[in-house]
Write a structure and sequence with these properties.
The complex is a heterodimer of chains A (about 375) and B (about 240).
Chain A: H1 2-8, H2 11-35, H3 45-54, H4 69-100, H5 107-127, H6 130-133, H7 135-162, H8 171-192, E1 197-198, E2 208-211, E3 214-217, H9 218-240, H10 242-252, H11 254-259, H12 264-290, E4 292-293, H13 299-312, H14 317-339, H15 351-365
Antiparallel strand pairs in A: 1-4, 2-3
Chain B: E1 4-13, E2 16-26, E3 31-35, H1 42-49, E4 57-62, E5 65-66, H2 72-78, E6 80-83, H3 95-102, H4 109-122, H5 124-128, H6 139-151, E7 157-161, H7 169-184, E8 188-193, H8 196-202, E9 205-210, E10 213-219, H9 220-225, H10 227-234
Parallel strand pairs in B: 3-8, 3-9, 6-7, 7-8
Antiparallel strand pairs in B: 1-2, 1-4, 4-5, 9-10
The chains are: A mainly alpha (about 375), B alpha/beta (about 240).
Chain lengths: ~375, ~240
């Protein structure tokens, strides 16, 4: 039986298997070398392992490579925070794909439009002191402005750029999306200028909180918790409300949904709007975490969120959440964990490479994603 | 005045002329069947009535309103429900959610709850499986669900597209029994079937459709003994 399977293995298959094996070996080897680089001069591997497993205070004795246990923990926490942002953006890709089987490549710009517009509100609040005297109200307003802006942009996008092409071949709206993406970038450059703008840092979010004895930057906590809360609300909306159920019905069969009396066009608009509101919220969180915005800020996070959506299984809502968090952590930990071990200089600058390598690998080896089902004929 | 009246209706799929001047009427309280071979235009006729397909010519009048001018999602509101060909249950939604979607246009929560209970007494199997996703149901159960879902809109006219397709003969009997029950409760039925024998047994009147045209219409009993029908559709 095994013989037969071996004989049926084509050249391409063998190459792909080799590629898989090579990547796994590289990651494992890099990790191993990276983690054991704290070995003292002349210390054997056995001694090293014994020393590290018998002593409990691992942080101070360099048992985890160049970095202490605290640093690794901080990498992971930062990864979760940025992963929350990726996940929120990824939801927009996945929701729209769910109902239209279309990748809205202008979604990154929907995210940018909210974050960039809200910057001016945040900046005004920071200047007149409102941001520090009433931080919660101020941040609430900033968040609202961002979500509303993104939603309006997405609704216009759907109405003007996508709806007229609903019955066109699938490549057409994809190309339109790329065009719309550039149109939005340069419209906002024209409106707001091409320089980087520094997001104000509310005083309430400076410093750290002690959470279960672990000191964590307040912004990271707020970003992660907000992202989680929004995702839970969205999941509830899609699963439990009448509109959410109608969304799922439209995603499955538009003609039958029409027979139920569901206004399919309206549901599609609501889907775009929901995804955009999440992206708008992600925009403010991005401003808080990375402290700066500009007119092309949507591009890289947009593609990373798309990667996250594909990673989790596009069209699958929990998949987008899991994919986003996974990508965020992997990207944050990866460079120090295995790229440095492999001897790559300035590994942290290569974190984008990790994300996009991951996109290519997922597309080659598991196009349906982590939680995705096998694509049916109809969708594929 | 007839409840439903099609007058010289022409429908197209792109450039394919699928309905070539269909005229038919359905009176209140009747079961009318539309029989014909595969590809004759039976489903197309139903799709034209429910608004998924727009007639290029002719009128579709329901209760005095011109359906060709009504947006498709508002046709349910007027009192027409359709059980689509191949059942069309939402396979990723639960049985309960499917029924709720059937009542999408209604806002009377108490009434909806009542109708769900009623559907469960008609189809006890659905009650047992209310939390299961519809994709896990058997073909017969899916057909029951599709019919129960269509009834959730409290229609005056029920359009049924091949309810017997792909079902075991014993289930087919049950489905046709249900059709008669639904009709006895006051719902008018337009039934599209390839199984002409069964359809003519439950229907009051019938139309025979061939390549997009009505070629024959009569009482169901007369059609059952009609030479042409017997040869073409009843197999003897």
């Amino acid at each position: 039986m095994l013989n037969e399977r071996l004989r049926n293995l084509s050249v391409i298959d063998s190459l792909l298997w080799l590629l898989r094996a090579a990547i796994i070996v590289m990651v494992l080897w890099g990790t191993f070398v990276g983690l054991t680089s704290g070995r003292a001069d002349g210390e054997g591997m056995g001694q090293f392992i014994q020393r590290c497993t018998t002593q409990t205070d691992v942080g101070t004795i360099q048992c985890m490579g160049k970095y202490s246990a605290e640093t690794w923990r901080d990498f992971i926490i930062f990864g979760l925070a940025q992963g929350g942002i990726y996940a929120l953006i990824a939801l927009g890709y996945t929701l729209v794909y769910g109902v239209l089987f279309m990748i809205n490549f202008a979604h990154g710009e929907v995210f940018m439009s909210g974050a960039y517009t809200a910057f001016f509100v945040a900046n005004a609040f920071a200047k007149n002191g409102f941001l520090d005297s009433n931080p919660i109200v101020a941040l609430g307003i900033v968040l609202l402005v961002s979500m509303v802006t993104s939603t309006i942009i997405a609704i216009l996008l759907e109405r003007i750029a996508y709806r007229p092409l609903r019955r066109a071949p699938r490549l057409v709206p994809l190309i339109t999306a790329i065009g719309a993406s550039y149109f939005l970038q340069y419209t906002f450059r024209g409106l707001y200028g091409s320089g980087k703008k520094v997001y104000p840092d509310p005083a309430i979010l400076t410093g750290k909180w002690d959470i279960f004895g672990i000191p964590i930057l307040k912004t990271q906590v707020v970003v992660f918790v907000s992202a989680m809360v929004l995702m839970v609300v969205l999941y509830w909306f899609v699963q439990k409300t009448k509109t959410g159920k109608a969304m799922r019905a439209v995603a499955e069969d538009k003609d039958v949904a029409l027979l139920m009396g569901i206004d399919v066009d309206r549901v599609i608009v609501i889907t775009f709007a929901t995804g955009a509101a999440m992206a708008g919220a992600a925009g403010v969180l991005y401003g808080l975490l990375f402290k700066q915005v500009d007119f092309i800020m949507g591009f890289i996070p947009g593609i990373k969120a798309f990667t996250a959506a594909v990673l989790g299984g596009i069209g699958n809502i929990p998949g987008a959440m899991v994919g986003g968090l996974f990508l965020g952590v992997f990207e944050s930990v990866g460079p120090s964990l295995f790229l440095e071990g492999l001897g790559v200089p300035a590994a942290y600058q290569l974190k984008d490479v990790i994300a996009f390598t991951m996109l290519v690998l997922v597309l080659i080896f598991r196009p349906s994603g982590i939680l995705g089902e096998t694509l049916s004929e109809k969708k594929a | 005045m007839a409840l439903l009246e099609l007058e010289n209706v022409h429908s197209y799929y792109g450039s394919i002329h699928a309905l070539k001047g269909i005229s038919l009427t359905v009176e209140k309280g009747e079961i009318v069947t539309l029989i014909g071979a595969n590809g004759a235009g039976k489903s197309t006729t139903l799709r034209t009535i429910s608004g998924i397909l727009r007639p290029r010519q002719g009128r579709v009048m329901f209760d005095g309103q011109d359906l060709a001018k009504t947006p498709a999602h508002k046709i349910v509101n007027l009192g027409i429900s359709q059980v689509p060909e191949g059942r069309g249950v939402f396979s990723k939604l639960t049985v309960m959610e499917n029924l709720e979607m059937g009542a999408f246009v209604r806002t009377d929560k108490a009434g909806i709850q009542e109708d769900i209970e009623h559907a469960f007494t008609l189809f006890p199997r659905l009650k047992e499986r209310q939390k299961q996703v519809a994709g896990t149901l058997s073909g017969g159960e899916q057909q029951m669900l599709a019919m129960a879902r269509a009834m959730m809109a409290r229609p005056n006219l029920l359009l049924l597209d091949e309810p017997s397709m792909g079902l075991a003969p014993i289930l087919v009997d049950g489905i046709f029994e249900t059709i008669v029950n639904i009709n006895n409760e006051g719902t008018t039925v337009l039934l599209v079937e390839q199984n002409a024998l069964m359809a003519l047994q439950v229907a009051h009147r019938g139309y025979v459709i061939q390549t997009g045209e009505i070629v024959l219409t009569d009482d169901a009993k007369a059609l059952q003994v009609n030479e042409m029908v017997r040869e073409a559709y009843l197999g003897h």
